[in-house]
UniProtKB/TrEMBL annotation:
Family: Belongs to the small heat shock protein (HSP20) family.
Domain of life: Archaea
Record field: compositional bias (Basic and acidic residues): 65-83
Cross-referenced SUPFAM superfamilies: HSP20-like chaperones (SSF49764)
SHSP domain location: 21-134
The protein's name: Heat-shock protein Hsp20
One Pfam family it belongs to: HSP20
Organism: Haloarcula pellucida
Positions of the UniProt region annotated as Disordered: 65-111
Gene3D superfamilies: 2.60.40.790
Length: 134
């Protein structure tokens, strides 16, 4: 009998692939587009429903996307010989290059893709105080 663990080998293969292609298997793939006046974040979340998604903006520059879905089948006929439940979760936090306006943010979810629009803070916002140097 062999000492090989096929599951460990499979896990190592996934780790190698994620290192080579720069994608973590457990994370949510995202694209961030700078449209000038706003950032638009596209996140691939196939297999989830709107109710499964939680999108939060933290500190005007961090966007956190969490998706959690569990599925159970209910049967009252007979006894279970085997019963499988599916649970799927994913999360991703992205740091935006500039602060965004919380009030104008919006999100939509269609065909497995979450789209979050985050308008940038307008130029007349308080960016601090200039201190002249004499």
């Amino acid at each position: 009998m062999s000492d090989r663990d096929p599951l460990a080998e499979l896990e190592r293969a996934f780790d190698t692939l994620s290192e080579q292609f720069g994608v973590d298997v457990d994370t949510v793939p995202t694209d961030i587009l700078d449209e000038g006046d706003a950032f638009v974040v596209y996140a691939d979340l196939p297999g989830f429903d709107n109710a499964d998604l939680d999108v939060q903006l933290v500190e005007e520059r961090k966007l956190t996307i969490t998706a959690d879905h569990s599925e159970e089948s209910e049967t009252t006929d007979g006894r279970y010989v085997q019963r499988e439940r599916r649970r799927q979760s994913a999360s991703r936090t992205v740091r935006l290059p500039e602060a965004v306006d919380e009030e104008g943010t919006s999100a939509s979810y269609e065909e497995g893709v979450l789209t979050v629009r985050l308008p940038k803070v307008s130029g007349d916002a308080d960016d601090g105080t200039d201190i002249p140097v004499n």
